[in-house]
Specification:
Elements (H helix, E strand, L loop, with lengths): L2 E7 L5 H12 L4 E3 L8 E8 L14 E9 L23 H9 L3 E5 L8 E2 L2 E2 H6 L9 E13 L3 E8 L5 H12 L3 E11 L2 E2 L6 H5 L23 E3 L5 H5 L4 E2 L8 E6 L3 E10 L2 E7 L4
Parallel strand pairs: 3-10, 12-14
Antiparallel strand pairs: 1-3, 2-3, 4-9, 4-10, 5-8, 6-7, 8-9, 10-11, 13-16, 14-15, 15-16
Length: about 290
């Protein structure tokens, strides 16, 4: 079974939990996700199945969009609502303008320290395992880009926000650092991912919807239409004589594209055959092949 599913993940499930359930539901063993989502978080978790797992390499640096809530006055050891308090709760005497101005200072490129309770490796061991044992966690900062961090609501203690960030950005750390910079401390109390690059929440399905598909029915209605995948690459329909060469990874001539560097090669409207790179002129070499022999 080859395709791309956008899952609307429930809170309490790890990304691995979702992958395991989709394997069971579909019977497809080869399933992977395009970007880990914390158990507390909900929303967009794109999954690639079968040969489409070969597309994962194009999403290593995918931007992501979120909406959520930051609660001020209490910091936690995990930087989110699932952690233990990192001290006593403090009074919050901030105005909405102060919170907005504080958030604006975190927009742009910045060096961000991953949370101690994270999957980042320390000498080959996930940081969260060391943190749970009370052992020191020595992580290195990563350069990330916060393209948007906008406060959309304020009730005197909690700030609703939307954000657009580069791959590798921790929203938990943003909440923690914002709380520390403004004084009373803060943690991330709610988070929903609304997009991973071209994958949007409005195109997502719940696991319950997948489980309701009758055995033997087509999955076309659940999979994202292949024409919507990697839209930055032009789409070309392969001539019939090119199919055999594509299946074996051989270069093919695509006369209608003489300037594009990379193209998506289709058979008809729905069947994505390959992602190909231009060798010279109109000759394209498949980078990955998504059809069998």
């Amino acid at each position: 079974m080859d395709g791309l599913l956008i899952i609307d993940k429930h809170a309490g499930l790890t990304s691995h939990d979702v992958v395991a359930r989709v394997r069971r539901i579909t019977g497809e063993k080869s399933v992977g996700h395009l970007g880990t989502l914390d158990p507390m978080a909900t929303g967009v978790l794109p999954l690639v199945l079968g040969r489409f797992t070969r597309l994962a390499q194009f999403y290593n640096d995918a931007d992501k969009r979120y909406e959520g809530v930051i609660r001020f006055g209490l910091a936690t050891d995990t930087y989110d609502a699932e952690g233990e308090p990192a001290g006593a709760e403090r009074p919050v005497q901030l105005t909405e303008e102060q919170v907005r101005s504080g958030a604006a200072k975190f927009v742009g490129r910045l060096q961000q320290m991953p949370p101690p309770f994270s999957a980042k490796k320390v000498a080959g061991v996930p940081a969260y395992r060391l943190a749970r044992k009370g052992q020191p966690v020595e992580l290195q900062p990563n350069e990330v880009e916060v393209k948007e961090l906008e406060v959309t609501g304020w009730d005197g203690k909690c700030a609703r926000f939307t954000s657009w960030v580069s791959s590798g950005t921790y929203l938990r750390t943003l909440a923690h650092d914002l709380g520390r910079s403004l004084g009373p401390g803060a943690h991330l109390s709610d988070l929903k991912r609304t997009a991973v690059r071209e994958f949007r929440l409005e195109d997502a399905h719940t696991l319950e919807e997948l489980e309701s598909v009758p055995a033997g029915d087509s999955w076309d209605g659940m999979f994202l239409h292949p024409r919507l995948i990697l839209p930055e690459f032009p789409a070309v329909t392969a001539p019939p004589e090119a199919l055999a060469r594509l299946k074996h990874g051989a270069a093919v001539n695509l006369p209608e594209f003489s300037k594009a560097l990379t193209v998506r090669v289709f058979a008809g409207q729905r069947e994505l055959l390959a992602i190909a790179k231009r060798v010279a002129g109109t000759l394209f070499q498949p980078k990955i092949v998504l059809i069998g022999n």
